[in-house]
Amino acid sequence: MSVSIRQLKIFEATARLGRLTAAADDQAISQSAASQALKELESELGYPLFMRIGRELVITDAGRNALPKVGQILQALDSLMHSEADEISGVLRVAASVTIGSYLLPELLSQFIHKHPQVDPDVRISNTGEVISAVEKGQVHIGLIEGPATHNHLLITPWSEDQLAVFCRPDHPLAAVGKLTATQIAQQRWVLREHGSGTRAVFDAAVQQVCGQVKLALELNRQEAIKQSVKAGLGIGCLSALSIAEQVDAGELVVLHTPLELRRRFSLVSPPVEQSNALVRAFVEHLQQHAKAETVDK
User: Fold this and answer.
1) 187-198, pLDDT tens digit by residue?
2) What end-to-end distance do the CA atoms of the chain give, in Å?
3) CATH 3.40.190.10 fits domain 90-154+275-283
4) Phi and psi (nearest 5°) for 283?
5) Whole-number Å distance between alpha carbons of 61 and 123
6) Rounded distance, CA 51 to CA 58, Å?
7) Bridge pairing between strands 50-53 and 155-168
8) Which three-class secondary structure state does DSSP give residue 69?
9) Quick one: 117 exposed, middle or buried, by C-beta within 10 A (0-12, 13-18, 19+)?
10) Residue 228 has what pLDDT?
11) Which one, of 218, 192, 217, lies nearest residue 205 by Cα?
12) How far is CA 238 from the centre of its chain?
């Protein structure tokens, strides 16, 4: 078998970026050369790595299984070129679900880059399901999610804790009472995150334990849209307490106590191979140190 490093790099870049043209640009070669490299690699391996559906390249099951092994090879090669004593540097690709990406990650990245100024962050923010998909496809080094999740091939490690809060506008009839009973939970109209988000998964699981189901007024994928909808009187909402703290302090929203169990864990998502990546290890240690500090403060 004669497999080249260039072929492996083109495969990894195509899987990560989703397009052959983008992979060719990433590796600074022509599209025809990238296409040829992929064909040669598939020929050497004896199985297809991608299927073409219309204009899209979709990774095959065999390609998905090969991807972490290829990543391990490329990381081993990189470690030969950089000693352990080298300063932490390089592109750190992170995917974060909305609450983490909006309210925690900016400060965490700022602190990390202050310690390691040679690190160049590349961040994407989406819901929990999309974060897991990005890690699975090798598009990012690590994912930060806020909902319960399992995966056969990825490591999902609890990292920190968060509390969801139920809230309404100040002139809502429930605001003066400050709480919701199980019966009232089922009666209210709710403005919630979309299915696939960690926030929605925690809320749905909690409701199942108390009253079975709720009346859905709106389903939105933006936290700001949910807050504005609640302010407009379209229903009551449920988001991370982190995301409504400013509005609660300003008296624009009121938190309601409920019998719902809305505590959840933030988790780190990574392929096993990333544990050998010095940059990723340093970032994970930074996150864990932050979580410990938060626990002590509480």
Assistant:
1) 999 999 999 888
2) 57
3) yes
4) -70, -40
5) 26
6) 5
7) unpaired
8) helix
9) exposed
10) 97
11) 192
12) 19
The type of residue at 272 is P
Residues 89, 118: Cα–Cα separation, whole Å: 5
What is the per-residue pLDDT for 82?
Answer: 57
C-alpha–C-alpha distance, residues 270 and 154, integer Å: 6
pLDDT tens-digit series, residues 267-283: 999 887 666 678 888 99
Question: How far is residue 28's CA from residue 34's CA, in Å, rounded to a whole number?
Answer: 10
Q: Are 253 and 169 in contact (CB under 8 A)?
A: yes
Q: What is the spatial distance between Cα 251 and Cα 245, in angstroms, rounded to a whole number?
A: 10
Strands annotated E in the chain: 50-53, 56-59, 90-96, 119-125, 142-145, 155-168, 189-193, 215-220, 236-240, 254-256, 263-270
Could you tell me the pTM of the whole model?
Answer: 0.71
Amino acid at 73: I
Q: How many helices (H) and strands (E) does the chain have?
A: 12, 11
Check if the beta carbon of residue 49 is closer than 8 Å to that of residue 61: no
pLDDT value, residue 84? 52
Gap between the Cα atoms of 289 and 298, Å rounded? 14
Mean pLDDT, range 194-218, rounded to an integer: 91
Radius of gyration of the chain (CA): 23
143: tokens are 């994912």
CATH classification of 5-81, choosing from 2.10.25.10, 1.10.240.10, 3.30.2160.10, 1.10.10.10? 1.10.10.10
Q: For the chain, give the mean pLDDT.
A: 88
Task: Answer for the pair 217, 235: CB distance below 8 angstroms, yes or no.
Answer: yes
Q: Which fold has domain 161-264?
A: D-Maltodextrin-Binding Protein; domain 2 (3.40.190)
**Nearest one of 192, 220, 221 to 204, comparing CA atoms:** 192
